[in-house]
Amino acid sequence: MNTDNSTANPWVTKTSELVYESAWIKVHKNDVINPAGNPALYSYVEFKNLAIGILPLDEQNNTWLVGQFRYPTNSYSWEIIEGGGPMHLDPLESARRELKEEAGIVAKEYKELMRLHLSNSATDELAIVYVARDLEFEEAEPEESEILQVKKVHISEAYQMCLRGEITDAISVAAIYRIMLELK
Q1: Which residues make beta-bridge pairs with 111?
Q2: Residue whose C-alpha is closest to residue 147's, from 71, 92, 72
Q3: How far is the C-alpha of 6 from the C-alpha of 79, rounded, in Å?
Q4: Are 127 and 80 in contact, with CB atoms under 8 Å apart?
Q5: Which residues contact 62 (CB under 8 A, 6 or more apart)?
Q6: CA separation, residue 15 to residues 29, 40, 42, 62, 121 (Å)
């Protein structure tokens, strides 16, 4: 175990190769020298967008969850409202768009709740999560790739869904746990 408290990067990148790119990600393969001084291969995914999460709360602490089938995990998932936001755009603008798009909700008040690095051993993905309040309701406008169910639940029920393993999405679990701490 290293007892050096240095925060300097102990990795040395010898070569880096872009092996795949899509509209959403880049996959890199790097030849490196690891912290022990040995040659190694380190591959990672670079995300082209921010991950954006929005936890809408009304005056009675009800929230809205979105259910959808997630292709990578081959499973149905209940989540807070989430989506991607271009790196060059104010994340709050992306949050406003996603909340309206997925749930038909327009909020007058937003507060940044947290920032998270998701799976930081294999990706550089950054999530920014907001709590949205003072809500108005309009028609949802989901993307063509989304078949969504939206349900209203009290935040305490969303918390129980996390505890029962019914909500497993990392952004959702973190946001729901965090807001429960703030509401105590």
Answers
A1: 131
A2: 71
A3: 38
A4: no
A5: 152, 153, 154, 155
A6: 8, 11, 10, 50, 19
Q: What share of the chain is helix, strand, coil (3-state, %, to 5)?
A: 20, 50, 35
Amino acid identity for residue 19 in this structure: V
Which residues are CB-contacts of 21 (< 8 A; sequence separation ≥ 6)? 27
Residue with tokens 């969850």: 65
Give the start-to-end residue ranges of the domains of the chain. Answer: 12-47, 49-183
Model confidence pTM above 0.85? yes
Cα 140 from Cα 47, distance rounded (Å): 26
Helix axes 170-183, 155-163, angle to 10 degrees: 130
Tens of pLDDT, residue by residue over 92-117, are 999 999 999 999 999 999 999 999 99
- Phi, psi torsion values for 103, nearest 5 degrees: -120, -5
Q: What CATH number should be reported for the domain whose range is 49-183?
A: 3.90.79.10
